[in-house]
Amino acid sequence: QLKLVESGGGLVQPGGSLRLSCAASGFTLDYTLDYYTIGWFRQAPGKEREGVSYYGSHSGTTYYAHFAKGRFTMSRDNVKNTVYLQMDSLKPEDTAVYFCAASARHSSWYSGDYEDWGQGTQVTVSS
Q: 85 burial class (0-12, 13-18, 19+ CB within 10 angstroms)?
């Protein structure tokens, strides 16, 4: 039931950096951002949607896909109800539409376990 809005995408050169934001709103009752597992996914043209990173609310742990580890960093601001994905050392193969998603029920790499989705933001890495 959350509304998620991604921003921060754009065109960047290989080796450059970009920070994506995911602003969450529409919280019900006394539930806050910390209650939800927040995941970042991406989908390139002609490819399946894949998980990039997610923060598991129960474990308090952030997980990264192999291609993201060491280059991407996920963080959050509970006051602003915003989740960030800092992307460094970007490569052309990182080009994709990036989505954030939320789940009150699961901590998962599986996109089907997420209940709420943003519309995505385009990231293009090219010289």
A: buried
